[in-house]
Every structure is written in C-alpha cells, then in structure tokens.
Amino acid sequence: MKYLSEIRSTCVRYTLLVIAFLLAIETHAYDFIADGVGYTITSTDNRTVEVTMGEGRYTGKIVIPSVVVNPDDLEAGEYTVVGIGFAAFAQSGITGITMPETITYIANSAFYMCSGLTTITLPESLRTIGTESFASCAGLRRIHFPAAVESIGSGNFSATNQMSTITVDEANTHYCAEYSVLYDKAKTRLIRCATLNTRAITVPATVTTIDAGAFMSCINVPSITLPDGLTTIGNNAFYACSNITSISIPESVTGYLANGILSRCTRLAQVVVPSGITEIGLNAMEGCTQLTTVSLPEGVTEIHSHAFDNCYSLSNINMPSALKIIDAYAFMNCSSMTSFDLPDGMEEIGERTFEGCWRLTQMNIPEGITRLGDRLFENCTSLVSVALPSTLANLGLNPFNNCPSLAEVTVADGNPFLSVIG
C-alpha cells in the first residue's frame, strides 16, 4: 500500500543518514586538523578544503578561517576553505560559529541538532544549503539568507522550535521572505513559516505549492487562509498548528490528502476537505482532539493508517460510497463515535481500526469484505451487536477483546466460512 512504501522510503533515508554519520565518525573523515578543526581536501588542483568532523565533538564558539595550512605538511602551503561538509557539526555542543566569505556551500546535516546554536550569520559568498542542514537546531532564533543563495534544501527548519525571524536579502534572485515566511522569488512556493510567527497568515494568490512541514509547530499562528489556485500541499504541512480552529483546503487540491497534513492541530474543530480528494493520508488528522465533524467527499477510496487516530471529539464522519479500504488504526480512540455507516463494496479494514471507540454500540460489516484486521474492536466497551457479511472468511485475531457489552454477533446467510459465533 502507498503509505507503507512512504514509511519504508523515510526509514531507508534516515537509516542511510545515520549509517553515513557513524561511518564518518568511525573513520575520522578528515585529512588534517588545524587549530582543533577538521578539514578534508576537496581539490588538490584548486587547493580547496571543507570543514568536517574532527577528533571529537566540537564545543563553544567556532571561528573558521578563510585559508588554512596543514600543520603536518607545511610545504603544501595554504588551502582555501570553501564549504562546511556533511554533518560537520551535527549533534555537537557549539554555541556560535563565524564563517569566512570564502564559504560557498553548507552540506546536508551540517549543523543537525546543534541545540546550543541560537544565531548564525551566513557568509555573503554562500550559494548552496543542503537538506536538513539546520534541522533540530532547537535554539536557533533567526536566520538571514544572503543575496547569493540559490538553493536551500528541504527540511532545514524542522524542529527549529525557537525560530522567530526569517529574512532574505532583497537582492536575492531565488528567494524572498515576507513577515518571516520564506518563499521562492516568484512566490509560487511557500517553503517555511518561522515557528514562533504570531501573525494570521494569508497565503498569496500566486502560491501553488506549500512545502512539507511548512507550518510545522507554528503554535502561535491563529489562522491560515489558503488561495484558490493552490494545487500541492506537502506532508505535515500544518502539523501541530495548535492555535488554528478551522481551515479550508481549496478545491484545486486533488488526489492524495498529504500525510500528517493537520495532525495534532489540537484546537481544530472544522475542516473542509475538497471534492477532488480520493485518499486521506497517513496520520492526516491524527490527534485533532477537538475535531467534531468531518465531511469526506464521495470519491474517497482509501483512508490510510492513523488518519483520525485519537480524535476524541469526533462524533460525525461520513463514509463515502466509493470507499474500499480503511487502513490500520484509522479511527483508533475515536471515543465519541457511536456508529460507522460503512458502504457496500468495501474490500479491507485494517487491524485495530476501531480500537478504543468505547461509545460504539453496533457495527454492520458490509458485503465484499473477506478479512478483518486483528483486534478490530478491542476496548469497544459499549459494543452490543456486530453483523458480519456473507463474504467474510477470516475474523482476524481477538476481534472482540475487552468488549464486555457484546451480546450478539450475526453472520449473513450464505457465508460458507462462518456459521456459528459463540
């Protein structure tokens, strides 16, 4: 299924990152050390080096020179420092860094999880910033992108929970910022809103794409208004925007509703899902504890895993006529739901989908389903009756675990697999 492939892809990416990081540490990925800083030669012809991991974790304030000499090979002469290498300062204890005007790139994960870094001045010579270069810099409060920057990788602001200010030099031809929201220069792509932004955000009409995690953990933003021409919203775009109470996703957004798009928006009470949506993504509205009503368009065919998990207040949601698959845990702990009107023609219900729906009193499993996921109704303590279809061949493991009120389970006539349910 789609969500499983996305999970595998994410796991592989992060596993490779960790492996590369550990290998770099193990092999001491530097050619020489000068004044406590590790350097790797990037070009012997051009006599350039990049900063890399040293013999131990860096701490305190670091000053990088524009040129450096290998103390073990003085005859080789000077090298120009042109970059900050992969994970060079990752998970280190640095509190500040001064970079020379010879630096042209900052590689992937260069400052990953530098929680003591509160401010950083990027050199005017900088052109490229890799992916997740500043991710999880929990103390980083502000960042200014110089005029020469032409590429900013994805994930650079994830878990930067103290970020209040994002600015871009007006002369930059690739990016711009307005009210601490970062865009491409044409304002067709919204990249990131500063986490501590307190403004009500009206996304410009020119924006067609909102990046993954663009508003992640923007807990002080009171509202977000989206334009009619918006076509793409990335995963976790509004994750943990805990101050917004409603959001209208425009009709121009179609297909797959992004994973985690509104996850943990704990004050969200109302959401409008556009008519062209066909799948509700993984964790789409998980943990929206004040969400009461959701209207799904009739074209939705699949509700992915954990989509409405822990939506304690959800009491009204329609099941579209085109629905085929409800994945595992999709409605787990939706404790205000008393019933689900599932359409005929469904094919699959995943494990523990209705676990913890303790107000649920009855359930009719529709014709077409052949197998139920394990522990499907676990802890549905008010469940009284369940009707099973003629097509069902496998109940799954422990479907009614801790259902003390269950009095009746019936099987439709003509079922060749199940005849008597004790």
Task: Tell me briefly what this model is.
By secondary structure, the protein is mostly beta strands. It contains one helix and 31 strands.
Describe this structure in words.
- With 422 residues, the chain is mainly beta.
- It has one helix spanning 2-26, and strands spanning 32-34, 37-43, 48-52, 59-63, 67-69, 78-84, 93-98, 105-106, 128-129, 142-145, 151-152, 165-168, 175-178, 181-184, 189-193, 201-202, 209-210, 224-225, 232-233, 246-248, 255-257, 270-272, 277-280, 293-295, 302-303, 316-317, 325-326, 348-349, 362-364, 385-388, 408-411.
- The strands form eight sheets. Strands 1, 2, 3, 5, 6, 8, 9 and 11 form an eight-stranded mixed sheet that branches. It has a five-stranded mixed sheet with strand order 13-14-15-17-19, with no helix packed on it. A five-stranded parallel sheet has the order 21-23-25-27-28, with no helix packed on it.
- The two termini are 34 Å apart.
- Residues 1-14 and 23-27 have low confidence and may be disordered.
Poorly predicted segments? 1-14, 23-27
Question: Judging from the principal axes of the Cα atoms, what is the shape?
Answer: elongated
Could you tell me the strand content as a percent range? 25-35%
Sheet with the most strands, sense and barrel status: 8 strands, mixed
Helical segment count: 1
Number of strands: 31
**Rg from C-alpha positions?**
26 Å
